[in-house]
């Protein structure tokens, strides 16, 4: 996975919570 996708995934998870 690209680092950008990983970062976006973490940010999305944080916003979801």
Describe the structure.
The longest helix is centred in the middle third of the chain and has 14 residues, at 3-16. This protein is 82% helix and 0% strand. The chain has 17 residues and is mainly α. The protein contains one helix and no strands.
Main sheet attributes: strand count, strand direction, barrel closure: none
Number of helices: 1
Amino- and carboxy-terminal Cα gap: 23 Å
% residues in beta strands: under 5%
- Average pLDDT: 91
User: So what's the overall shape?
Assistant: rod-shaped
Point out poorly predicted stretches.
none
Radius of gyration from the CA trace? 8 Å
Q: H/E order of the elements?
A: H
Share of helix, binned: over 70%
The number of E-state strands comes to 0
Structural class: mainly alpha
In a few lines, what is going on in this structure?
The protein contains one helix and no strands.
Defining key terms:
ATP synthase CF0 subunit III, plastid, single chain, mainly alpha, 0% strand, 17 residues, 1 helix, 82% helix
Topology readout:
Layout: H1 3-16
Keywords: Plastid
Protein name: ATP synthase CF0 subunit III
Organism: Fragaria x bifera
